[in-house]
Inverse folding.
């Protein structure tokens, strides 16, 4: 019977020259600054609390973009005497701060919306507001798509959070746009603050998601299951090279960097030089499967193999009859 092949874990290999993160953060700052100005003017002219809530949302995004900008610059600095593992976790800390800023902004929006429901006021010049919000939605969709691509290319937690902010802003802008059109058609002013409350709820969901992702890294959560499988698959492929087992596999992440350390056992008779050379090749094999991987391997003798962790070298599959 032919041997069944186990599919490889779907892990994207490292890009030898990933694009810089700083220009994407600068674009986000410029975009948010322009949109804040437009929304504040439109909100003042129309008196729409939904538009003003959008201006507040963009202001929070601007602060988050500034935090992301400085965090990616810091994260790109090399390791020093005081930070031997580098500064990558600054990105995760920045993403957590961004998430908390989102929650604060949602509370401000909700407060203003409730106040407007209790004390209604007229909404005027809706044409201007509709045009500004439509432009804002399209601009945020375009900028967030660009930043998201950079985030994936560089594994940047800060840029990922920034892109999430802008996507949320674009979605809430779509809701505000619908609300303004309905107010203009029906004259029902209560729609405006109700939509602002919905915007606040959407922002809370986005903020909690960002905080959750960031804190997982800050508390050294292990790498995801597909990446763990990629590491173990790479180790098993070294069975014919004298690797008979491994244990104490530990992984964590800091910003775009992955840290992996493990103990590897070698077959009797393997010289220290041969084991050392094989360990270096295994490190390279893991790095080919996972981008930005810092791999530390501790070499041990065969007697250290723990039951259930043995690696049996694969033998060629026998030819099937017929």
């Amino acid at each position: 019977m032919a041997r069944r092949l186990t599919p490889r874990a779907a892990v994207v290999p490292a890009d030898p020259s990933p694009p810089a993160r700083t220009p994407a953060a600068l674009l986000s700052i410029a975009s948010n600054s322009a949109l804040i100005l437009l929304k504040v003017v439109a909100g003042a002219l129309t008196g729409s609390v939904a538009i003003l809530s959008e201006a507040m949302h963009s202001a929070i995004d601007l602060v988050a973009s500034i935090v992301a900008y400085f965090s990616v610059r810091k994260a790109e600095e090399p390791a020093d005497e005081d930070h031997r593992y580098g500064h990558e976790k600054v990105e995760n800390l920045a993403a957590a701060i961004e998430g908390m800023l989102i929650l604060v902004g949602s509370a401000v929006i909700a407060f203003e919306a409730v106040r407007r429901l209790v004390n209604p006021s007229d909404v005027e010049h809706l044409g201007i507001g509709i045009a500004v919000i439509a432009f804002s939605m399209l601009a945020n969709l375009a900028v967030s798509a660009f930043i998201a691509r950079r985030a994936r290319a560089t594994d940047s937690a800060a840029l990922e959070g920034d892109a999430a902010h802008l996507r949320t802003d674009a979605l809430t802008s779509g809701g505000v746009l619908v609300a303004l059109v309905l107010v203009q058609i029906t004259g029902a002013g209560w729609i405006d603050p109700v939509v602002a409350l919905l915007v606040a709820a959407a922002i809370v969901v986005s903020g909690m998601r960002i905080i959750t992702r960031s804190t997982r890294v800050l508390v050294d959560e292990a790498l995801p299951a597909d990446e763990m499988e990629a590491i173990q698959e790479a180790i098993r492929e070294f069975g014919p090279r004298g690797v008979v087992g491994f244990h104490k596999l530990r992984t964590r992440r800091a910003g775009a960097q992955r840290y992996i350390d493990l103990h590897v056992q070698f077959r009797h008779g393997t010289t220290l030089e041969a084991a050392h050379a094989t360990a270096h090749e295994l490190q390279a094999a893991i790095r080919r499967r996972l981008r930005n991987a810092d791999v530390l391997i501790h070499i041990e003798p065969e007697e250290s193999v723990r039951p259930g962790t043995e690696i049996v070298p694969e033998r060629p599959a026998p030819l099937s009859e017929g």
User: Anything to note?
Assistant: Confidence is low (pLDDT under 50) at residues 1-18, 316-322.
